[in-house]
């Protein structure tokens, strides 16, 4: 039953997240909200909605390390898989200057996040700081887009091409309601199933969060990146990953830590956080002008992710065997 809950939860999260974004964008357009604000807020928050709801639900169900594992694991998967897999299909050329600036902020957010993690716990004070940095990022992004109308117009054109929205007001409202309900039920199913699976395999909730939950909640970004790669929009694919990682670090743990404290296991301080930072640094060469993510680079990224998952599985097995011996 636990495995059915996990699969059903993941499916609900992916579908509900998509419905929520499409319905919210349509309603915002009808309310007169500019495309610029929609792209930088509703769409960005929407793609991170599955991780956000899962994080809050995990804290409420006394599984806070699952929330932390989900964020760290999603950021690792976003870089190594969401960028790596599309590159295997079609090498992507990156040239937009905004990618480099956003990458700098993502790396800055990652370092701040790690520094807080070494304090041993994320509580409401750290949560407020993370959310303040998120507000700063959104405000800066809006100001910069308004100062560069040509760049903003190109980005919005690509967003419109990749985003199908309902035209009817009633249908858009239905999409939003269904999306919210689906996210809540999907998160509850996923967290309950993931905790049960962790117990069955004798591994920690953190490991399940880093792997199964993280990979599942990264599916919307992966699907968007695959579509963008096929259409030759590397800027959209890589930009989506950078934006999603920023929102994951700042909004998900920021909001979840307001609900309850999130302890940081020693394994995160020793390995997982550093893997997240290393994966983030891999994007630096690919955001330079006229650089590209080729098939070889994509294969290396996917291989690194598989190696990381194998390491987690072996570490969990060793920990389980040690526990049985004791």
UniProtKB/TrEMBL annotation:
<feature type="transmembrane region" description="Helical">
    <location>
        <begin position="268"/>
        <end position="286"/>
    </location>
</feature>
<feature type="transmembrane region" description="Helical">
    <location>
        <begin position="171"/>
        <end position="195"/>
    </location>
</feature>
<dbReference type="GO" id="GO:0008273">
    <property type="term" value="F:calcium, potassium:sodium antiporter activity"/>
</dbReference>
<dbReference type="InterPro" id="IPR044880">
    <property type="entry name" value="NCX_ion-bd_dom_sf"/>
</dbReference>
<feature type="domain" description="Sodium/calcium exchanger membrane region">
    <location>
        <begin position="3"/>
        <end position="142"/>
    </location>
</feature>
<feature type="domain" description="Sodium/calcium exchanger membrane region">
    <location>
        <begin position="173"/>
        <end position="312"/>
    </location>
</feature>
<feature type="transmembrane region" description="Helical">
    <location>
        <begin position="37"/>
        <end position="56"/>
    </location>
</feature>
<dbReference type="Pfam" id="PF01699">
    <property type="entry name" value="Na_Ca_ex"/>
</dbReference>
<feature type="transmembrane region" description="Helical">
    <location>
        <begin position="6"/>
        <end position="25"/>
    </location>
</feature>
<dbReference type="GO" id="GO:0005262">
    <property type="term" value="F:calcium channel activity"/>
</dbReference>
<feature type="transmembrane region" description="Helical">
    <location>
        <begin position="103"/>
        <end position="121"/>
    </location>
</feature>
<dbReference type="InterPro" id="IPR004837">
    <property type="entry name" value="NaCa_Exmemb"/>
</dbReference>
<keyword id="KW-0472">Membrane</keyword>
<feature type="transmembrane region" description="Helical">
    <location>
        <begin position="76"/>
        <end position="96"/>
    </location>
</feature>
<feature type="transmembrane region" description="Helical">
    <location>
        <begin position="242"/>
        <end position="262"/>
    </location>
</feature>
<dbReference type="GO" id="GO:0005886">
    <property type="term" value="C:plasma membrane"/>
</dbReference>
<dbReference type="GO" id="GO:0006874">
    <property type="term" value="P:intracellular calcium ion homeostasis"/>
</dbReference>
<feature type="transmembrane region" description="Helical">
    <location>
        <begin position="207"/>
        <end position="230"/>
    </location>
</feature>
<keyword id="KW-0812">Transmembrane</keyword>
<protein>
    <submittedName>
        <fullName>Cation:H+ antiporter</fullName>
    </submittedName>
</protein>
<dbReference type="InterPro" id="IPR004481">
    <property type="entry name" value="K/Na/Ca-exchanger"/>
</dbReference>
<keyword id="KW-1133">Transmembrane helix</keyword>
<feature type="transmembrane region" description="Helical">
    <location>
        <begin position="127"/>
        <end position="143"/>
    </location>
</feature>
<feature type="transmembrane region" description="Helical">
    <location>
        <begin position="298"/>
        <end position="316"/>
    </location>
</feature>
